[in-house]
Amino acid sequence: MKSFDLLIIGGGPAGISCALVLGSALKKPFVADKAIGIIMHQRNADLNAALLNNVLGIKPGTIGGTILKEGKEQLENTYPDIEQIEKEKVIEITGEAGNFTVKTNKNEYKVKTLVIAVKTANFDIEGLQDYIVPHQGFVPEKNKIQLKNKNHLVTEGIYVAGVLAGWRSQLPIAMGSGAQVATDILTLWNNGTQTIAHDIISQ
Ligand SMILES: Cc1cc2nc3c(=O)[nH]c(=O)nc-3n(C[C@H](O)[C@H](O)[C@H](O)COP(=O)(O)OP(=O)(O)OC[C@H]3O[C@@H](n4cnc5c(N)ncnc54)[C@H](O)[C@@H]3O)c2cc1C
User: Fold this and answer.
1) Interval 176-193: pLDDT, tens
2) What contacts 108, CB < 8 A, 6 or more positions away?
3) What backbone torsions phi and psi does residue 72 show, to the nearest 5 degrees?
4) Theoretical Cys-Cys bridge with 158: which of 75, 76, 125, 154, CB 3.0 to 4.6 Å?
5) In the chain, what are the domains?
6) Residue 84 pLDDT more than 90?
């Protein structure tokens, strides 16, 4: 069974942003030996339905599907060491921090730490039901759910990112949430010393 130190579940803006920040930190000594993967499922992304005119850095009129496609390519081309797992959907999570088993429709993976970045509608991953609560960022009539968390941490070894973390549904918020989770995990791997991942223009 394939093993990961960290597996991100969901190839939407929150999941890809998390993966990109982790990818850019792979040069750090405390990250270099980590096996990091992402279940790059994109078909159900909320972003597929969006027409974007109001996001900094994105050309007005861009459709959400383009961002998903280009985000996946950016990750592939810039940080190929992050393994992208395609055409798989997570069905069940069992185990505990350091030893989770993630079951998809095709495979099983051993995982130490998880980031859940799937959409809130029709949430159906077995093993996480205990953490489901009404979403704090939608009106109750929408019947949306989120995973209960404290600063994205659901329980030891499981983080949540994006709209499923309870944030209101805006693309930059979802991306920021994924990036925040990435830096939390980097800080954890750096034995609790605060850290970020920046590239700098060479002089
Ligand atoms: C109609 C519409 C218009 C919008 N317009 C705007 C706008 O103008 N400006 C703006 O800023 N925001 C807009 N948004 C909001 C924006 O699209 C969302 O906030 C953003 O996509 C949320 O990102 P996310 O990563 O949390 O979730 P998502 O984009 O939903 O991504 C979740 C990912 O998880 C995957 N997934 C689901 N189930 C599983 C599973 N079991 N296993 C593995 N993967 C799974 C999905 O395929 C998807 O790729 C709009 C949204 C909609 C619906």
Assistant:
1) 999 999 999 999 999 999
2) 1, 101, 102
3) -65, -45
4) 154
5) 2-189 (3.50.50.60)
6) yes
